[in-house]
Amino acid sequence: MEVGMLPISASKRGKLLAAGYTSLHSISRASASQLATDIEVSQDEACEILKYASQTSALDPSIGNSNTSNLYGGQTAWTMLNEEKFSTRITTSCVDLDNILGGGITCKEVTELGGVPGIGKTQIGIQLAVNVQIPLEYGGLGGKAIYIDTEGSFMVERVLQIAEACIEDMSEYSNHFHNNVQDCEVKMHPNSILENIFCFRVCSYTEQIALVNYLDKFIEEHKDVKMIIIDSVTFHFRQDFEDMALRTRLLNEMALKLMKLARKFCLAVVLLNQVTTKYIEGSYQLTLALGDSWSHSCTNRIILFWNGDERHAYIDKSPSLKSASAAYSVTTRGIRNSNSSCKRIKIV
Amino acid sequence: MANKLIKQMGLPNSIANIFTARNIITAKDALSLTEFELMEQLDVGMAEVKSAMAHISEVVCPPCQTALLLMEQRVRDERSAGHLPTRLRGLDEALCGGIPFGVVTELVGPAGIGKTQFCLKLSLLASLPENCGGLDGRVIYIDVESKFSSTRLIQIGIENFPEIFLKKGMAQEMAGRIVILRPTSLSEFTESLHHVQVSLLQKQVKLLIIDSMAALVLGEHDCGASRQQALGWHVSFIKIFTNSNSSDKSIRSHSIKKEDRAAYDSHLVAALGINWAHAVTIRLVLEARSGQRFIKLAKSPISPPLAFPFNITSSGLVLLDDDGIEMKGSEINTIHCQGQKALFNSEW
């Protein structure tokens, strides 16, 4: 085990190596005062180094930790299976799309949606921001949403339209299943849906990174946020970025932070991406923007495209979903099934 | 926001001094490095870096607003920050009132189809007093190709609003609110954008028209990456001050001809490429098909893609049908052009 793995400053690391502490094992065997005199730091700093050393060595199986299920932050696959079975998903309001997604957008994962301009990415984003608020009685999560708008395409009038349509659908649904008229009344008002969407307007990549850093604190204060939508994650990283290697590093760090947020607070993160042309195998093709290393960062990747006159969604990458495509349409009420494939109204 | 000095953010002095010592002065400098890199450069532990970055991020982060608040602001400021009605009933209905404030709208079309006519009428409408449905504000018209014709502007004014324009001195006042800038190169354009930013705050500019973007760039760069980069900065700049000043923008774009061997009509492609297409919020495509001109609402977050047939008369653009035809699939973004003859057949 390397001393280089400790999250301490470079000069302290240098001092440890110079004093002969080359492995974590040797550090953890020393006492705090011994360490303090050997590397000439204060007692508090020596205690901190010891603490880091013992935490890191707990992850190393070669040190012989027999109780493997309570490793620092680890979980067994069995506990995770139970969690996955009962996790609620956020519907997209289009039955075909929900089917290929296994029920909807999953929490604790980062999903990326990309497509050509005008295909409906912002529409799906707004629909999800409304659908995450569907109450538990109707199969939703009853949570709030954070909408991060980098392009200025968030139009409140459209959110109101979709919110009103969602409430109408919910009352229709309860009409089918409840005999008692009083039960049918949906207690939501479009304004309360609007109130539960937190919007941030980001004007540069610095603000975008700052916001992702700040979200940890924000969500601690608003624990019922269950959905973060970034529309679009690409925009500010495409304009005047001279150092591409830096861009890759910043994007990777941002992706890791988002993944951490998704797991920690058990929410869904949806990133909307743009397309760019790329020279592959002798011709120019459309691919999602931000490059190849970004394409590894998200858990699920869905590509939206035109198939003749219909809009389709295709699952490009997912650890648990089968590669499939489904048609959807954008209507005045939001995202719905495409007309040609719908022969009957399906009651979910 | 990104250029805020770290010294002024209220960090504890010890860490603030370390930042300055390593030449990380603004928030942008700090956020452009990953946390690991910061740890290396500042020579402090990870925990300290994390808490300093959390503090900086909170300060730099944009403010949070709920969608309800945005809606109420929209309704309240409808007059000064809502929509610019275009007087084309079908288009205004589709756009929920007219060209919205705070977003970038693009007009694309082949030569001679009516883009400048539309822009002239819009600048007139913005300068009209409020009781006639105007914005009572100033207009800045950046005219790259020297297409602005004051005579034609006054003619449109007289045809549409005879009661105002035939009054003494009114024509002068209306025309006096429109300022025309004529940059001849991209660098001059950049400079004029900077000047515009200053005057936007002082005077009551409600509309900024750039006619046309492609003309500036086509002369100077070859296709592809360098052109995208050159425009990249402009796109984000325009978007940012569009939003912060709540005036609205209309940008025209040229089209280049791309011959399609199989078809009779030649198909055109918008000149600035797909990166630009993502950057605009609303896209109006003007085209001619079988002798009839159409204005298509190709990209809009509020309405489905609709095409309206129109003609150009002495009073500007006139829609022949207010209901619009809905388009699907690839039709939305293609631009039809039927050769030069059909397009010169206008009636004024």
UniProtKB/TrEMBL annotation, chain A:
Function: Involved in the homologous recombination repair (HRR) pathway of double-stranded DNA breaks arising during DNA replication or induced by DNA-damaging agents.
Lineage of producing organism: Eukaryota, Viridiplantae, Streptophyta, Embryophyta, Tracheophyta
UniProt KW DNA repair keyword: yes
Cellular localization per UniProt: Nucleus
Gene3D superfamilies: P-loop containing nucleotide triphosphate hydrolases (3.40.50.300)
Listed name of the protein: DNA repair protein RAD51 homolog 3
Domain RecA family profile: 86-275
Entry GO MF terms: ATP binding; ATP-dependent DNA damage sensor activity; crossover junction DNA endonuclease activity; four-way junction DNA binding
Organism: Arachis hypogaea (Peanut)
Chief place of localization: nucleus
InterPro entries, A to Z: DNA_recomb/repair_RecA-like, HR_Repair_Mediator, P-loop_NTPase, Rad51_C, RecA_ATP-bd
Family under the similarity heading: Belongs to the RecA family. RAD51 subfamily.
